[in-house]
Amino acid sequence: MTYKVIGKRVKRVEDPRLLTGGALFVGDVNLPNMLHAAFFRSDYAHAKIKSIDTSLAKEIPGVVGVYTAEDMGEAWEPGPPLVSPPPTLEGVVFNSRRQVPLVKDKVKHAGEIIAVVVAESRYIAEDAVEEIYVDYEPLPAVTDLEKCLEPGHPLVHDDLDSNLAAYLVQNKGDYEAAKKEADLVLKRKFKLDRGAAVAMENRGIVVDWDQKNQHLMIWDTTQSPIPIRNGMAARLGLRTHQVRVVAPFVGGGFGPKIMMFYAEEMVLPWLTMKLNRPVKWIEDRKENFYATTQEREQVQEVEMALSKEGRILGIKQKIIHDTGAFDPYGLTTPLNTQSHSMGGYDVQNYNSELFVVFTNKIIVTPVRGAGRPQGIYVVERMLDIASKELKLDPRDVRRLNFIPKDAFPYNHEIIDQAFVELVLDSGNYLPAYEKALEKIEYDKFVQEEQPRLRAEGKYVGIGVVPFIETTGVGPYEGARVAVEPSGKISAATGVGTQGQSHMTSFAQIIAEELGVEVEDVSLVSGDTAEIHWGTGTFASRGAVVAGNAVLAAASDVRKKVLKLASKILETPEDELELEGGLVRVADIPEKSISLGELAVLANPFRGAVEPGTEPGLESTKYFGPAYGATAFGVHGMILEVDPETMMIKIHKYIAVEDCGTMLNPLVVEGQIHGGVSMGIGNAYYEKLHYDENAQLLNASLADYLIPTSAEMPHIEVYHENTPAPNNKLGTKGVGEAGAIPVPAAFAQALENALPDFNLEITETPLSPNRLYELLYKSEE
Amino acid sequence: MKPAPFKYYAPQSVPEVLDLLNEYGYDAKVLAGGQSLVPMMNFRLVQPAVIVDINKIPELSYIEPHDKGVRLGAMVRHSQAEKDPLIKEHAPLIHETMPQIATVQIRNRGTIGGSLAHADSSAELVVVTTALDAKFKIQNQKGERLVPAAEFFVGLLTTSMESEDLLVEVQIPPMPAHSGWSLKEVARRPHDFALMGVAVILTLNKKDRCTEARMVYLSAGDGPISAPEAAKLLIGNEITPELITAAAEKAAADEIDPGSDIHATAEFRRHLANVLTRRALEEALQRAKGGN
After folding, report:
1. Where residue A601 falls among pLDDT bands split at 50, 70, 90?
2. Is residue A215 part of a domain?
3. B10/A68 Cα distance (integer angstroms)
4. How far is CA A177 from CA A86, A173, A180, A314, A316, in A?
5. What are the tens digits of pLDDT across the range B121-158?
6. How much is the pLDDT for B292?
7. Domains in chain A: how many in total?
8. Same domain membership, residue A567 and residue A696
9. Average pLDDT score over residue span A598-618
10. Does the beta carbon of A698 lie under 8 angstroms from any beta carbon of chain B?
């Protein structure tokens, strides 16, 4: 299908506002009579609360109130379970334990909230927090994934027998039988550590209860405004029309902002209704490290059986996944790990045992990549190690194992985050892989560049890693599209926007359908007053699920436009075309009517509307896929390492992506750039350091190292297009793709750079200090 | 992340500052560039009762020739020093150090005097001024005194200044003839606090024998850490690769006392000190011989 607007490199229409300070963020919301909240958070990760003394805090001038769990009375209840375990899996153990608004008796992670101060300014509120005194009985903390299930280990949740949050086994084929046929059986243990999402904008919420109107207004940095509205109404005993949630411009989501309800989201609405005044809380960076969800920590034992030609005969895996102190987000993340542990390879035998454990660390929910990087990491590392053992070219091993083009749709048979068997809808992996090798000039590098630089004393290496990304899962999203009497288009969708360019790429879909300029489309995302149904922005699904809903609504409006225009222009519909904001007769362009005039005629002020028709040129439509659209990509890097200082520099970075139809290549490339930055962080810079007391030791951007623009390589992005067969646009998601393969590519490149050191990397991130230990110290 | 309440003064002259420091003593904190103080206040790690903001005092921002070297007013911003031709000519080690400090944004705001008075043992200027044997002019209501670097930095985030003292000037002596210098450091990201770093100054006589050697380390102890024993291995000798190796090993193993933290163990820091000392001595030697 050839498009006029879809797929074009249209500059983002939201940027002028964003770049000139003209966009509304939650922090910009300031209301008359507004109060400010600050939270007293536990210093301990695991402790009983013996007493709380708020008396001095209450005496500070300007303090309106100081509240603890006791004060909430019946309004105190834990957050809702967001995602239950998949009902389709048999024998699943799942212990649901959810976060609370204010801690009653026992603290389960450092940063949990014990009291809230409400004051006339944030300064006063923070002064008062310093005057709250809590008497704790510290308890031994649960931190070690491998030891925490041992009998007698301290318990995060005293009402459970162990720290097991969930257990399940997924099986495909017969691994043990396959193993018997194998020429090589490899077994390795992997450690994957925790990182933070570090959105530029922290979380924030402003709430305003209008008593006379019996209406609650909420501005929230959520990725999920409609579920927040629904859940909030249910918690507060209100009808949904009494609650409006606006997620205005949000400075980055990356997953943690889909979590609900955070303790602060449970406390603030209660406060505004109690005090009958607006209340504001903006998370500071330190709070963000202690209170906003994190991800990635797993220990895995992986066994891979291969033939001597390098064919994967089977994979066996044991995953211990840390969910932190609570598990509100169910099994989404570790299910993604399982569904990506076979990568884009044809693996017939797979057995994966999953233990999800509670620890006294910050809650784990998906962070961009969401379990997928861990799966891709282990399968790619195992293939690299197998290639060395079998003395095969790692490229040939991958070529041999890719799912062939004619095998799609390909059933991986693993229940994934969508609660259905993962069916890879489409793909054409080998050409994309070959393109990546060509673009990074793999042969030239290993044959010419590397030997030349090695002779100069430089240690350079290359890593090229393919990956899949499941995207675009259900349940559904909706969109409303309407032609205004001005001829301009207004549109709305329920997915919040945190930088994904929805205002542009969705406008391109509408512009394509209705023959208007992109600038003539005004799209609202993230306001529950504009659309009633929806779920949110997550799982790389905006372009697929909301995008196709936008297309459906715009197509329906187009039908209405044509029907009405046909009548007025006295021309059959198939002889009309939409162009430049007009409907015109294709053969007689001067015979036309504007969309605006049609909109006025479709909503007559007097007279009768024809029975069975609706007023206006407007439509609301929904899209829900049976299963997702799986994207594919290959990333390659060339890096240089100084084996004396352990400093690393990435000299070249290329990405080949296949996300099917692109709505806007600029946006796709931006997503890749951002994702790669997070991936480089996960590979080399970013690690949350918890000590044995589950204390976070680096809760600031001075000590939690994110790559800045100065550390980022130039990234070349190349495109392949295998359209998704199950949605009209043919799109696949790309929001998380960039982050997924980087640690695996980094490890491959680093090993390739240091052939003399017998280096085998089975952990991520890999700090310089850790690299030093691997290179110069014999393992314990 | 808001600071605790404090009183704020913005005096217009040095005597006014000295009056305030005399009045409030240890309750007062001088605000220069604020690149360390303000974050610490926002984290409530420090809660000074009184802030004396010296940004309104224009006369502390000079860079002038002084005794064949240069002198810098305490309020000179890092970026000002970075671009200054006098410093480039007379204090090449300072000139080379400036871009390695933090980020452009921090250098635009942070001051030379503020960094030195803060005395962070991972700060480049602290080790470089120690290696250069800089002098610090300190004033209080009673008068002024000149303190050499070795006596200025006395411990972890501590100088020999008293609560009523204000650092007003740093004097950088000229680089001796036939000298070479180098600053080498390793940081996770270029703008981070360095895991390890060393400033080296080597002076040779006409027969290329070493007459003076200074090695001063950052992130290697409670303050700038010198390595006099390693220097002794070099002084009086023609510097060979073997001597460089020996000196680097000596300093790294015996003379520095780095700690462990989440970014690097003491052992890794000693390893880096060894590597960086060798590289710095090689570069300094080449320069002393007239390489560049």
Report:
1. very high
2. yes
3. 41
4. 28, 9, 5, 9, 12
5. 999 999 999 999 999 999 999 999 999 999 999 999 99
6. 47
7. 3
8. no
9. 84
10. yes
Measured CA distances, A537 to A35, A727, B151 (Å): 30, 18, 60
pLDDT at position B291 is 59
Q: Which pLDDT value is given to residue A780?
A: 46
The CATH number assigned to the domain holding B25 equals 3.30.43.10
Which residues of chain B lie closer than 8 angstroms to A705, CB-CB? 188-189, 192
Q: Which residue of A has its CA nearest to B185?
A: A645
Residues of B in contact with A773 (CB under 8 A): 268
C-beta separation of A745 from A464 below 8 A: yes
Are residues A207 and A218 in contact, defined by beta-carbon separation less than 8 angstroms? yes
Residue whose token pair is 């008796």: A105
Residue B101 domain-assigned (yes or no): yes
- Tell me if chain B has a CB within 8 Å of the CB of A120: no
CB pairs under 8 A between A and B: 57
Strands in B125-206 per DSSP E: 135-140, 143-148, 153-155, 158-159, 166-172, 179-186, 196-204
CA–CA separation, A146 and A149 (whole Å)? 7
Q: What does DSSP assign to residue A385? A: H
Determine, for residues A698 and B262 on separate chains, whether the beta-carbon distance falls below 8 Å.
yes
Residues of chain A neighbouring B262 (CB-CB closer than 8 A): 689, 697-698, 703
The answer to whether the Cβ–Cβ distance between B263 and A769 falls below 8 Å is yes
How far is Cα B205 from Cα A396, in angstroms, rounded to an integer? Answer: 62
Reference B163, options B18, B57, B9; nearest CA is B18
CB contact under 8 Å between B186 and A645, yes or no, is yes
The structure tokens listed for A276 are 């009958």
Which residues pair with residue A364 across a beta bridge? A294
Above 80 in pLDDT, residue B35? yes
A391-422 pLDDT, tens per residue? 999 999 999 999 999 999 999 999 888 888 89
User: B242 in the Ramachandran plot: left (φ > 0), alpha (ψ -120 to 50) or beta?
Assistant: alpha
Please tell me which residue of chain B has the smallest CA distance to A698. B262
**pLDDT at residue A218 greater than cutoff 70:** yes
CA A542 – CA A659 distance, rounded (Å): 13
Q: Give the CATH number for residue B153.
A: 3.30.465.10
The complex's ipTM works out to 0.95
pLDDT reported for residue A521: 98
Q: What is the pLDDT of residues A88-112, one digit of tens each?
A: 788 899 999 999 999 999 999 999 9
Q: Is there a single domain that holds both residue A134 and residue A274? A: yes
- Going by their DSSP bridges, the two strands B50-53 and B7-9 should be labelled as parallel
- Do A503 and A455 belong to one domain? no
| Residue of chain A nearest B197, judged by CA positions | A645
A286 vs B43: CB contact, 8 Å cut-off?
A: yes
Would the CB atoms of A708 and B44 count as touching at under 8 Å?
Answer: no
Domain that holds residue B211: 179-288
Distance from CA of B70 to the nearest CA of A (A): 32
Mean pLDDT to the nearest integer, A31-48: 98
Query: Is residue A711 within 8 angstroms of chain B, CB to CB?
Result: yes
Strand pairing class (B143-148; B135-140): antiparallel
Cis peptide before B85 (omega within 30 of 0): no
Confirm if A739 and A676 have CB atoms less than 8 A apart: yes
List chain A residues with CB under 8 Å of B5.
123, 127
Average pLDDT on A435-454 reads: 98
A149 and A357 Cβ atoms separated by less than 8 Å: yes
Residues of B with CB under 8 A from a CB of A: 1-5, 39, 43-44, 186, 188-193, 195, 262-265, 268, 271-272, 275-276
Last residue of a domain, one of A623, A638, A653: A623
The overall average pLDDT reported for chain A is: 96
**Interchain pair B271, A286: CB under 8 A:** no
